[in-house]
Amino acid sequence: MSAVHGLFLPALAHAAPLDQTTPPTAPPVAAFVISQANPPPGASVTITNRSRDANGHPLAAALTVDGQAPRSLNADQSIAVTLPTTGTHVLIGISTTDATGTRMSALRDVVYGAPLSGPLVSGDVLVAVDKGEVEVHSADGSLRGVLHTVNPTRPVDPFTFPNANTGMALDSASNLYVTDFDNQTVSKVDSSGHFVSTVGDSWANLGCPESIAFDSSGNAYVGSAPCIDFGLEPAPIRKFDSAWNLIGTFNAQHEARGTDWVDLANDQCTLLYTSEGGLVKRFNACTNTQLEDLTRTQLPNTGSARFPDTAFALRLLPNGSGVLVADSTKIVRLDGAGNLVATFMQSAEHQCTASPCRLSRWRLQRPR
Fold this sequence. Notes:
By secondary structure, the chain is mostly beta strands. It has two domains: 32-111, Sandwich (Immunoglobulin-like); 161-364, Neuraminidase. It contains no helices and 28 strands. It has strands at residues 4-5, 32-34, 44-49, 61-65, 71-73, 78-82, 89-97, 103-111, 125-129, 133-137, 143-148, 165-170, 176-180, 185-189, 195-199, 208-214, 220-225, 237-240, 246-250, 262-264, 270-273, 281-284, 289-291, 314-316, 323-326, 330-334, 340-345, 360-364. It has a five-stranded antiparallel sheet, with no helix packed on it. The protein has a four-stranded antiparallel sheet with strand order 5-4-7-8, with no helix packed on it. A four-stranded antiparallel sheet has the order 12-13-14-15, with no helix packed on it.
């Protein structure tokens, strides 16, 4: 049974780095990578230009940081920047122009963070972000601190996009488990916010872990997806006992891409999951059998023909009253029979055109 409840929101599209093999049909974009998602005030961070034209070629760009003179960056250049020492956040922007004269820009509001002071408490909201960090917010939205979900001694390569946290869940002792999609690992963080270790079996040649749900016995179900779009890994749902020994592998049916996001129904057998398509699918983990899809028709698509919506995160509502499903542009609520009940549109700043969407919100509760 899932240890958490809440909404999943897509990441800021401009914050995600672009693959240098971007196909010719990709839109031009201004983009950058920052080495820390929630640095403390006055920190020295590395910012890397990742702007691309429509053919995937890197572009030079201009970087601006609050209160500092603009800086010119060559294509794919990294630069060390010392952030302001005052305030609660800093605005960082980048702009570029391609050969056709098309001007593009991206702006990121970077919230200053600090190590979590005090343990996780009921009502905390946890926000998984890039670079192996999880923001901890109080119920009023104020930032309490930042958890680090990777070994703090491991070096970070600014030319890659490592430690991309996606799914999270809590066990009965309020230990937090976070999937690191890009490194194919699951990290354990104790209730005081300290990184403990990575857990679980190797994911080599299987896919990348995306989401976690616990049952009432403390066993964990981990959903996964191929590590790249159109990858050939089987991307199963895997079951681990409370000590994170592998005790089951379920080759559930795919719709588009893997067994992306999972949750477990009250019967402790039925797994609901998405596969980056338009359906909510079901699988019986007790009998190892595929079940009829929860949704009889495709979820509503409010995206474009070029970037259609795909179902990502889902969460069962209490007492089997329905399901929340998040895609690239919105969150939909389904009833227990899979019928559409409501649609909640997201603002443009929370839309996502990259996969996997790398930001998820959770409200901390004890496992039900």
